[in-house]
Amino acid sequence: MLPRETLRKIRRIEIRTRRAVQDVFAGRYHSVFKGQGMEFEEVREYQPGDDIRAIDWNVTARTGTPFVKKYREERELTLMLLVDVSASNRYGSGAMTKRDLAAEVAATLAFSAIANQDRVGLLLFGDRVQKFVKPAKGVPHVLRVISDVLEAPAASRATDLAPALDYLNRVIRRRCVAFLISDFQAPPCDRLLRVTARRHDLVSLVVGDPRERELAPAGILDLTDAETGRRVLVDTSSPTVRRAYAVRQAAARAALLDRLRTARSDAIELWTDRPYDRELVRFFLRREARK
User: Fold this and answer.
1) CB atoms within 10 A of CB 7
2) How many angstroms separate the CA atoms of 256 and 210, rounded?
3) CA-based torsion, 145, 201, 176, 285: positive or negative
4) pLDDT (tens digit per residue) in 133-143
5) Closest CA to 268 of 23, 102, 125
6) Backbone angles phi, psi at 143, to 5 degrees
7) 28, 47, 152, 171 — which has fewest CB within 10 A?
8) How far is the C-alpha of 184 from the C-alpha of 161, rounded, in Å?
9) Can you point out the beta strands (E) in 143-229?
């Protein structure tokens, strides 16, 4: 039985995200993520203007009349959500943690997928694969996905993208749409990102907290890295310290986004203090423009 607070949180997420899906996302999702091929439907008699490459020579030879093969787009997709549940994603300086943001974004994408009759799967990871939920359809399945993201214990402090990407490539053989949701506080794995982006439609969602962009002037703070346990004293009252921190963090984010794009993965920055729906809409518009 889930804790009452978790149930309330799931309900709030369901109400918010399903409204956003109905109003904005379902149509854009459908136009951006189409079927992954063509499926044979029937043969019919050749008509002037048909592509001669579509002629079914076996049926034509048997009947003495030209027939062509007719195909239809294979609509059904698999959406895979790869969600980082390591210790650093439990951090939040405001009302929302990075884990909460990941759950809400995952819910928005999942409800968009099932609105288009697609299947949704989940892979939770830290420094290893923690849980895999097979792709399926339906609202109860999506609610389970949200619950799993919110309730997953931080079984590992550290983050490693490689085991999750490798598992995805081994288990999901057909091309899927894969959203990698993480703060990316992890060792680089550029080669595996490139391999995954070739096999699947890979989109990287980089979640962050405002205190990871800049420090608030709050005096001397004793800070602990959630993943390494390393502690450091920082004088946040110093403008020089705050400026140096902001410059270093901005440079690190720019380098990360550049690596993701070089690996042929779309990259989107999401922050716990900013509406994520705007960034997702911008992403869909960019993808529509490319198509």
Assistant:
1) 13
2) 17
3) positive
4) 999 999 999 99
5) 102
6) -65, -35
7) 47
8) 8
9) 177-182, 201-208, 220-224
Distance CA 255, CA 200 (A): 23
The pTM for the full model equals 0.83
Residue pair 156/186 in contact (Cβ under 8 Å)? The answer is no
Q: CA 179: distance to chain centroid?
A: 2
Q: Are 241 and 234 in contact (CB under 8 A)?
A: yes
Rounded to whole angstroms, the Cα distance separating 247 from 15 reads 38
3-state SS class at 86: coil
The string of pLDDT tens digits covering residues 138-178 is: 999 999 999 999 999 877 788 999 999 999 999 999 999 99
**Confidence class of residue 7 from pLDDT cuts 50, 70 and 90?**
confident
List all residues 6 or more positions away from 167 whose beta carbon is below 8 Å from its beta carbon: 123, 125, 129, 132
User: For 253-280, how does the pLDDT look when each residue is reduced to its tens digit (9 = 90+)?
Assistant: 999 999 999 999 999 999 999 999 999 9
Confidence of residue 75 (pLDDT cuts 50, 70, 90): low
Which amino acid would we find at residue 43?
A: V
H helix runs in 3-138, sequence order: 4-20, 26-32, 57-63, 98-115
Please choose, from the candidates 125, 172, 134, the residue with its C-alpha nearest in 3D space to the C-alpha of residue 153.
Answer: 125
Domains, in order of start, for the chain: 4-33+76-290 (3.40.50.410), 38-73 (no CATH)
Taking phi first (over 0 means left), then psi (-120 to 50 degrees means alpha), and beta for anything else, what does residue 50 get? beta
- Are the beta carbons of 196 and 169 closer than 8 angstroms? yes
DSSP structure string for 240-260: HHHHHHHHHHHHHHHHHHHHH
